[in-house]
Design goal:
The complex is a heterodimer of chains A (about 850) and B (about 400).
Chain A (H helix, E strand, L loop, with lengths): L2 H15 L1 H40 L4 E4 L5 E2 L2 H6 L4 E13 L8 E6 L1 H7 L3 H4 L2 H9 L3 E5 H7 L6 E6 L2 E11 L4 H7 L2 E5 H7 L5 E2 L1 E6 L12 E4 H11 L1 H32 L1 H9 L4 H45 L12 H27 L3 H4 L3 H31 L5 H51 L1 H39 L4 E5 L13 H8 L4 E14 L2 E9 L2 H6 L2 E3 L2 H9 L4 E4 H7 L6 E6 L2 E11 L8 E5 H8 L6 E6 L5 H15 L5 E5 H15 L1 H28 L1 H9 L4 H43 L14 H22 L3 H7 L1
Chain B lengths: L7 H5 L4 H4 L18 H4 L31 E12 L4 E13 L15 E11 L4 E9 L6 E4 L4 E4 L2 E9 L2 E9 L3 E9 L4 E2 L5 E3 L7 E18 L2 E16 L7 E11 L4 E9 L9 E5 L5 E5 L4 E4 L2 E3 L6 E3 L2 E5 L4 E7 L5 E2 L6 E12 L2 E11 L5
Antiparallel strand pairs in B: 1-2, 1-13, 2-3, 3-4, 5-6, 6-7, 7-8, 8-9, 9-12, 10-12, 11-12, 12-13, 14-15, 14-25, 15-16, 16-17, 18-21, 19-20, 21-22, 22-24, 23-24, 24-25
Classes of the chains: A alpha+beta (about 850), B mainly beta (about 400).
Chain lengths: ~850, ~400
């Protein structure tokens, strides 16, 4: 038998003899890999869906000619078909619609010209039944729906259902069901109500106008796009969408890597522990002539044997988790950026490979320090146990301290770099975490020296023994405390960030939603064909008793040189204007400029992403061509990450010649209760408006609805945090149980010396409790730092959002709430086992 | 905050989206191939209510009858011809067709200009004989915003930039200008009628089977002197030759057991023109109402009935694209006229298969004997109902 196979045998025996520890180590690897893989799969899945759906649906259009809000004159279409550079042109009329029967299912009403679509791909004739085709073309108010959607809504061919479009109620007949073979197209179409282009014009009040024209150009560009339109390249558009969500996805990936980092600490702990525990064996092997190199390789091999099954399990778990997560990612992208169909997840082999590489790589990296450590064991010292701990304490302790401080300084330095890149932010965060971990052993010693007296005072002998145990086994307890505090701090930091964010949004909503009642047309999403409130409705509502002041608003999407931006058009009072939270610009001096149309406002995130500042001008496409607008102020705004421009209504009217408003904000006279006015408004609407479907909400309701959306967008972050906590919990369990299991023999000596079972159990639980306390306490500053980094660096660099509210310091106590109970639970099992093992047996076993 | 951004991905959706749609129709109404707007379907039994039928002969009036007849379900302006260039010496066939298909005879009044009760479909093809190349194309449009349409006076029929317009001549012997462009081919031809309008069938009533009403109104301009330019992939040829124009409108034509037709228009070297069409049933047999005519150089017409003619298929050709098997080469014998002709496709593959309807329409060359003398010529053949 060669020494090497003897080594292998020895190491496998070790892991088989501690099945619990082995299982927990596997589990922590698996969980870390699972989280990373799941997030990657979900990110990939969401982008894949975007990519495939757009490619599949655009069917080869190279460009889009986008009309101004309200559409472009339809005469542009025949002109374009005659333009030499145009190979194919497909007109589209599109807007939002909804049926009171299915309030949860708003439709995108898409008017198509089947004929120009068919020219592009002639198998239309084969796929649509001629009679169905004829119905759509010749009968007004007939529509197609996806078969799945129709089934979900309980609709059948021939059914008539009410549809509200452009604020008017109509009856629409379902003429055919569509069942595209491509699942991505099916998903993408779920909310589409397909009608003939003539029907779309009539339903959306766009007779004579087109929303856009999809083009296949033979030339790279149209020489002169018609006035008021913008020509966009299809591929650019898709790229810009992908770029738009890049920060968000990077953020998720980084958060998932944090979970892996926590997992790495656990692996590090497991391997370190196995090395420390087998010092004697290693010393013996070294004495017998096993080389350092062979030892090193052996330990790496051991790690690999843990890493491979752990990673495999992690990948499987990751796929399962990814299925749930892609939904959350898609929903967040929907809320923050743009509509994305949720598609089933197809595990991407690259994601799986990445996960596997990360899992195995992280395990090996975490193994390097203890493996290196093991090779430095000299045969002689290895044979004496006590040398280990003293060895680790003074000089080694100083070294770790220095490493820790160096890493922290590096991290701090990275933050000070002028380059505000998100990647540096995350690197700094990682350095901070690892650096603090190096400080944990010394911190534990310090804490124990402080606790020696009170422990002895409160718990007598058990307390003293427990403190002594922590100190004596520092090579293991120090690492465990480090791992536990990193895990807890991460969970804490993310919790702080979420809390700060939510509080900020609450404050912001409070300030921004300063009217008492909000009125909007239902089912109105911001597209060019946005329905507007009827002037007579506005007049009626103004006269309701209790209505004191009225403001107006309207939202639309603009394709600009800065990309796709949201334009908010406002007519508001000075008091409401003053309520806005300005990042730069003084509301007092800005108000007249805004009111006169000399300045517009932009959101902080837009300013951040595009490097804009007060005084800059930006060009916006207006029906009369591109026009410069001066930035007067920058507002804090958290509604969407795509970038927001706020413009006075008069200024908008001047350039767009469009007087429409889509929503109203009402301030109620002081002597009227808001609810009463809401009721009066609702009654007035019910009797006066012709088919308009208005949503009348009190400030409070709207605020709640907004917060609900916020909570939804943060569901994924919360989930990641929860997973971090779970990883931490199992990590601590592993670390602490390992320590206690290893001390069977030591405990048996205590028993033999006369410690009762109860006392012994108490020592074990106290010891783990102390470790939990140490970790919990260290996690407080570390978690707070992480939180600050996430709030002020990561979040700002990702989204350009300044969080105005500092997190509640009370939240920091959560760290103890997580750490101590976990530690105590971890102590229970070994305590029980030790107490129930006879000293003789334990002594023999060890 | 409550409103989500609705996104462009949706906007990108448009093109092609419907092309992937397949209707979830119950099995019994599963469409057959090429049904959508297929002529075979449109010309069949469905959706005829309210349209007029061709039941008895009528008085033709020009230029009025050059224009559309919206009370009938379908109608076409059909120009085929053979032209050649001298420098370099090249021969070409071409087809320019505009179909009008009525969707409903009783359209509701609607505010949108796009609301339509009919569809126009254009087919265009050029056969480059020496290069053995065929360039077919299709356009579909509704007669909204002047994108497609037809009018009698002044005569004009068009779909986007493909158009046929009168630029002179007499109403029944016009001079027409034909133009069409695609990314590959371009045609700009002046078509001058050498012979007057010829009414086909019984004074222009062309019976398709024994059922009254299963007929069309049908006239031809049999010989049009054609000069102008033809371009393929940027290379322009100055060409001249002869063309044939058919005009036909109807509501119902084929009976349930009739599957398609074979149609020939031939310009013979002695100045006479021959037309013959046979309607086939499912067994491939010609209906007894099939007929044709020989128009001599002075424009006198002599009717050729199915019983007068022997049309024998000499060869077959299988389309590599549609896998349809077409006859390819015929022997046409009219014993009563002492006429025997061999018709050979100028190139084999002249199948239009990127169109809603798959059919063969192509240039043919003619060789034979007429009244004891050797005769040549060029013409066009159309074979429908072979696709499966």
């Amino acid at each position: 038998m060669t020494p090497f196979s003897l080594l292998t045998k020895a190491s496998s025996r070790y892991y088989f003899h501690t099945p619990w520890l082995t299982a927990l180590a596997l589990f922590s690897i698996a969980l870390g890999v699972a989280v990373v893989t799941a997030v990657d799969l979900a990110n990939q899945g969401a982008m894949d869906s975007l990519h495939k759906t757009t490619s599949a649906l655009d069917g080869g259009a190279t460009h889009q000619l986008i009309g101004p809000p309200g559409g472009m004159p339809e005469q542009h279409y025949p002109t374009l078909t005659q333009t030499p550079a145009v190979d194919h042109a497909i007109p589209v009329v599109e807007g939002m619609a909804y049926s009171p029967l299915f309030p949860q299912h708003p439709f995108i009403l898409r008017g198509v010209d089947l004929l120009s679509e068919a020219t592009l791909r002639p198998h239309l004739g084969e796929t649509l039944h001629p009679d169905r085709l004829l119905t759509l073309l010749t009968e007004p108010n007939t529509a197609y729906l996806l078969a799945d959607t129709a089934q979900q809504l309980g609709l059948q061919v021939g059914d008539r259902f009410p549809l509200v479009a452009n604020g008017q109620a109509h009856q629409v007949t379902l003429a055919a069901l569509l069942a595209p073979k491509n699942p991505l197209i099916r998903e993408g179409m779920a909310s589409f109500l397909i009608v003939d282009i003539a029907t779309a014009q009539e339903l959306l009040g766009m007779v004579g106008r087109l929303s856009r024209i999809d083009l296949i150009l033979t030339a790279p560009d149209l020489p002169t796009p018609p006035p008021g339109t913008r020509l966009l390249k299809a591929e650019n558009q898709q790229e810009s969408l992908i770029a738009m969500t890049r920060s968000f996805r990077l953020n998720l990936t980084a958060l998932s890597l944090l979970a892996l980092l926590v997992g790495m600490f656990i692996i590090f702990n497991t391997i370190t522990f196995s090395v420390v525990r087998r010092r004697r064996l290693i010393g013996l092997l070294r004495a017998q002539g096993v080389t350092r190199r062979a030892l090193f390789i052996l330990l790496l091999k051991e790690a690999l044997l843990l890493a491979i099954p752990g990673t495999a399990i992690g990948l499987l778990l990751g796929i399962v988790l990814g299925h749930g997560m892609v939904e959350l990612v898609t929903r967040t992208i929907n809320d923050l950026y743009f509509h994305l169909p949720s598609t089933p997840l197809h595990p991407d082999p690259t994601s799986l490979l990445k996960g596997a590489a990360l899992g195995i790589g992280a395990t090996l990296v975490a193994t390097l320090p203890p493996a290196w450590e093991a090779t430095t064991i000299s045969p002689a010292t290895a044979l004496t146990r006590s040398s280990q701990e003293s060895h680790l304490r003074p000089q080694k302790g100083n070294r770790t301290l220095w490493i820790g401080f160096t890493l922290l300084a590096l991290g701090g330095g990275l933050l000070l770099l002028p380059d505000q890149s998100l990647a540096y932010g995350f690197a700094a965060l990682a350095l901070l975490i690892v650096g603090s971990a190096f400080l944990a052993p010394r911190g534990t010693l310090l804490l124990m020296s402080l606790l020696k007296r009170p422990m002895s005072h409160f718990f007598g002998l058990s307390g003293r023994v427990a403190v002594g145990g922590v100190v004596r086994n520092l090579s293991r307890t120090g690492v465990a405390v480090a791992a536990l505090s990193v895990a807890v701090a991460t969970a804490l930091g993310m919790g702080l960030m979420i809390h700060s964010f939510r509080s900020t949004v609450e404050v912001w909503l409070e300030q921004t939603l300063s009217s008492d009642i909000y009125i909007s047309l239902s089912g109105t999403l911001s597209t060019s064909g946005n329905p507007m409130l009827k002037p007579q409705t506005i007049e009626t509502l103004k006269t309701i008793p209790g209505v004191h002041q009225v403001g107006f608003g309207r939202k639309m999407v603009l394709e600009t040189e800065l990309g796709r931006l949201k334009l908010l058009i406002l007519e508001i009072s000075k008091a409401r204007f003053n309520h806005y939270l300005f990042q730069s610009g003084d509301p007092e001096t800005l108000w007249p400029l805004f009111q006169n149309g000399q300045a517009i406002l932009i959101s902080e995130s837009l300013a951040f992403h595009k490097g804009l500042k007060v005084g800059d001008t930006i060009n916006l496409p207006t029906p009369g061509g591109s026009r410069p607008f001066t930035l007067g102020g920058i507002l804090y705004d958290y509604r969407a990450n795509a970038g927001l421009i706020i413009m006075n209504r008069a200024l908008f009217q001047h350039h767009w010649h469009d007087n429409g408003v889509a929503n109203m904000g009402i301030t109620v006279s002081e002597d009227y209760p808001v609810d009463q006015v809401v009721e009066a408004l609702k009654q007035a609407v019910a009797t006066q408006s012709q088919g308009e479907n208005l949503v009348i909400r009190s400030n409070q309701k709207l605020r709640q609805a907004s917060l609900d959306i916020f909570d939804r967008t943060f569901a994924i972050t919360r989930l990641l945090r929860l997973l971090g906590v779970v990883v931490a919990f199992f990590g601590v369990l592993t670390a602490l149980m390992a320590i206690q299991m290893e001390r069977f023999r030591e405990m048996a000596v205590f028993r033999a010396l006369g410690l009762t079972r109860k006392e012994l159990g108490r020592v074990v639980v106290l010891e783990t409790g102390l470790l939990g306390l140490a970790a919990g306490l260290f996690a407080i500053p570390l978690g707070w730092l992480q939180g600050q980094l996430l709030i002020h660096v990561i979040n700002y660099r990702s989204f350009g959002w300044t969080l105005l509210v500092e997190p509640d310091p009370f939240l920091l106590s959560q760290s103890l709430l997580i750490a101590i109970p976990t530690a105590l639970i971890a102590g229970l099992f070994p305590a029980y086992q030790m107490a129930n093992t006879s000293p003789a047996e334990a002594l023999r076993e060890a | 905050m409550t409103t989500k951004i609705f996104h462009t991905f949706a906007a990108l959706f448009c093109i092609g989206s419907l092309l992937y749609f397949s209707t979830a129709t119950p099995p019994e109404e599963k469409p057959n191939k090429a049904t959508g707007l297929a002529l075979t379907h449109v010309m069949g039994a469905a959706q005829q209510s309210g349209f007029h039928q061709a039941i008895q002969p009528r008085l033709f009036q020009f230029p009025a009858d050059h224009g559309p007849h919206p009370t009938f379900k379908q109608e076409w302006w059909y120009v085929t011809g053979n032209v050649s260039s001298e420098q370099p010496k090249r021969d070409f066939g071409f087809q320019w067709t505009l179909f009008r298909v009525g969707l409903t005879a009783t359209p509701p009044l609607r505010p949108s200009a796009w609301a339509t009760s009919e569809i126009y479909m254009g087919h265009l093809a050029v056969t480059d004989i020496q290069s053995d190349q065929f360039y077919p194309a299709q356009k579909l449009a509704r007669p909204a915003l002047q994108m497609a349409g037809a009018q009698a006076n002044p005569f004009r029929a068009w779909i986007e930039n493909w158009q046929l317009v009168q630029k002179g001549g007499e109403p029944n012997k016009p001079i027409l200008q034909l133009s069409a462009q695609t990314d590959l081919i371009s045609l700009e031809l002046t078509l001058e009628a050498i012979k007057e309008v010829v009414l086909q069938g019984d004074q222009g009533l062309s019976q398709k089977n024994s059922q009254p009403g299963n007929a069309s109104y049908y006239y031809s301009l049999p010989r049009l002197k054609s000069t102008g330019t033809l371009a393929i992939k940027g290379q322009t040829f100055t060409v001249n030759g002869l063309s044939w124009m058919d005009r036909e409108w109807s509501t119902s034509a084929l009976a349930a057991d009739q599957v398609g037709w074979d149609w020939f228009s031939l310009h013979l070297s002695d100045g006479s023109d021959l037309i013959y069409y046979q309607i086939r049933n499912q067994e491939g047999k010609a209906d007894p109402v099939s007929q044709g005519a020989l128009i001599d150089s002075d424009g006198n017409k002599r009717v050729i009935r199915a019983s007068d003619i022997q049309l024998t298929v000499l060869n077959h050709w299988t389309s590599p694209t549609s896998h349809s098997v077409y006859p390819s080469g015929w022997k046409l014998v009219v014993p009563g006229l002492n006429l025997s002709l061999i018709l050979t496709p100028a190139i084999k593959n002249q199948e239009l298969n990127q169109t809603l309807v798959t059919y063969w329409e192509g240039a043919v060359t003619v060789d034979g004997v007429y009244d004891g003398k050797k005769i040549g010529g060029k013409g066009y053949g159309e074979l429908t109902g072979y696709d499966r």
